[in-house]
């Protein structure tokens, strides 16, 4: 399967400036940029286009990855209904450092060039920029771009000159990378298409050379119809402090059946034969969640490494009852503590008090109602008594749960 055939099969080509899909089959040099306005970490939404970048790299394309220290100081107006709050240079520098580390992890073992556009923008004068770049853009064309037009007009939030100029800065990036690194293709998500178009005409006008842009579709949750990448708790981050490896792993384990095949195509390096085999096994016995487990194993290993993946897998098995908490080693127990409410009790202590102490009940009276209503389980077994017994503890620990949700589980260890 050629690169273009693979990208089409995976659904990774949306907009493009080149005429025929097979243009990508001859390796050249491309770049992908990411801004750092919001945080010092990327999310699984960002990860999708970085997986596209990995495919190009593994198909022989030379790779330039740009972290936007300069563009982050201005703020991308795309996808926003109102002006972004500007962050300080120090805040942006902190975010840039965090995201650079994540990019390096995602491309570990691959040959790539990592750049920061602040390195060339910090010395460019305003008049120089207007003459070298601004002169080549038509205001008529710029104000018609969706992400700008959506902010302008009566009753709308408006747009500052700074954010309006963002697209010119991105166009300059492409031109700079064309000159310095022979970059002839920019890739990104479809929500960046307007900005991605800025560099193509600038290179043509200033260098009389051809360059192109290609976008991939935004990943959509087919069940909700919304942009993919959020859990009940909010964004799913690549940073293990913001989203622990276990939470990250469980996000993929909980992926919807309707979209799981698409997620395998977008987020893993598995080829068509491997994904077909996974989906055949999944359809044969959906309750085993073969597709979701394959997805979780592959992506967590890429983002967090094999060791963290093994721990996350074991913690998940314990929480789902597939493995006894007694079998956990200290590394896994520490991960369970990080995920769950926890407390230390003795044999004979009150279950009612413990439910209230760890927040599974708001009071002892509510705890009593939960016990009477058969809503409390110890190690998966329903209980209605008030006191912990010796048999409850497995290797000095037990799981106390209200209902069925993971979030309503507590790790209880024996004194």
Keywords, separated by commas or semicolons:
Structural Genomics Hypothetical 15.5 Kd Protein In mrcA-pckA Intergenic Region, Chain A, 415 residues, 13% strand, Rossmann fold, single chain, 5-stranded mixed beta sheet, Tyrosyl-Transfer RNA Synthetase
Shape designation: elongated
> Biggest β-sheet, characterized?
5 strands, parallel
Cα-atom radius of gyration: 26 Å
Mean pLDDT: 91
Oligomer status: single chain
pLDDT < 50 runs, ≥5 residues? none
The helical percent reads 40-55%
CATH class of the largest domain: Alpha Beta
What class would the helix/strand composition place it in?
A: alpha/beta
Structural domains: how many: 3
* Strand runs, count: 12
Number of helices: 20
CATH topology of the largest domain: Rossmann fold
CATH level-4 homologous superfamily of the largest domain: HUPs
Q: Tell me which CATH architecture of the largest domain applies here.
A: 3-Layer(aba) Sandwich
Beta fraction: 5-15%
Distance between the termini: 60 Å
Neighbour order of strands in the largest sheet: 3-2-1-4-5
Can you give a write-up of this model?
The protein has three domains: 3-216, Rossmann fold, CATH 3.40.50.620; 230-333, Tyrosyl-Transfer RNA Synthetase, CATH 1.10.240.10; 340-414, RNA-binding S4 domain (Structural Genomics Hypothetical 15.5 Kd Protein In mrcA-pckA Intergenic Region, Chain A, Roll), CATH 3.10.290.10. It has 20 helices and twelve strands. α2 (44-58) links the parallel β1 and β2. By secondary structure, the protein is an alpha/beta fold. The longest helix is centred in the first third of the chain and has 18 residues, at 89-106. The model has no long low-confidence stretch (mean pLDDT 91). The protein is elongated, with a radius of gyration of 26 Å.
């Amino acid at each position: 399967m050629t690169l273009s055939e693979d990208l089409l099969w995976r659904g990774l080509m949306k907009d493009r400036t080149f005429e025929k899909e097979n243009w990508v089959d001859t390796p050249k040099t491309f770049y992908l940029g990411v801004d750092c306005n919001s945080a010092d970490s990327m999310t699984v939404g960002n990860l999708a286009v970085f997986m596209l970048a990995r495919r190009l790299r593994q198909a022989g394309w030379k790779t330039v990855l740009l972290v936007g220290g300069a563009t982050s100081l201005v703020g991308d107006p795309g996808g926003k209904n109102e002006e972004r709050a500007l962050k300080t240079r120090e805040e942006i520098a902190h975010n840039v450092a965090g995201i650079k580390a994540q990019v390096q992890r995602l491309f570990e073992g691959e040959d790539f060039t990592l750049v920061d556009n602040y390195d060339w923008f910090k010395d460019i004068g305003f008049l120089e920029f207007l003459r070298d770049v601004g002169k080549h853009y038509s205001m008529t064309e710029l104000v018609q771009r969706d992400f700008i037009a959506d902010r302008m007009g009566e009753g709308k939030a408006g747009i500052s000159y700074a954010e309006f100029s963002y697209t010119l800065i991105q166009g300059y990036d492409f031109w700079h990378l064309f000159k310095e690194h022979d970059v002839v293709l920019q890739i990104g998500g479809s929500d960046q298409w307007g900005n991605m178009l800025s560099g193509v005409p600038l290179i043509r006008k200033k260098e009389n050379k051809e360059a192109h842009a290609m976008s991939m579709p935004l990943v959509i949750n087919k069940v909700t119809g919304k942009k993919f990448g959020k859990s009940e708790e909010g964004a799913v981050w690549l940073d293990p402090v913001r989203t622990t490896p276990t939470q990250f792993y469980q996000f993929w384990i909980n992926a919807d059946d309707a979209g799981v095949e698409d997620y395998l195509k977008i987020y893993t390096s598995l080829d068509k034969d491997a994904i077909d085999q996974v989906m055949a096994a999944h359809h044969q016995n959906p309750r085993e969640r073969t597709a979701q487990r394959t997805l979780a194993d592959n992506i967590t290993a890429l983002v967090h490494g094999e060791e963290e993946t093994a721990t996350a897998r074991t913690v998940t098995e314990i929480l789902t009852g597939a493995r006894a908490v007694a079998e956990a080693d200290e590394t896994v127990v520490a991960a369970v503590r990080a995920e769950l409410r926890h407390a230390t009790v003795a044999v004979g202590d009150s279950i009612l008090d413990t439910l209230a102490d760890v927040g599974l009940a708001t009071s002892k009276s509510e705890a009593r109602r939960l016990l009477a209503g058969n809503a409390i389980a110890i190690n998966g077994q329903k209980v209605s008594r008030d006191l912990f017994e010796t048999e409850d503890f497995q290797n000095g620990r037990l799981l106390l749960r209200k209902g069925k949700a993971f979030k309503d589980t507590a790790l209880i260890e024996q004194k």
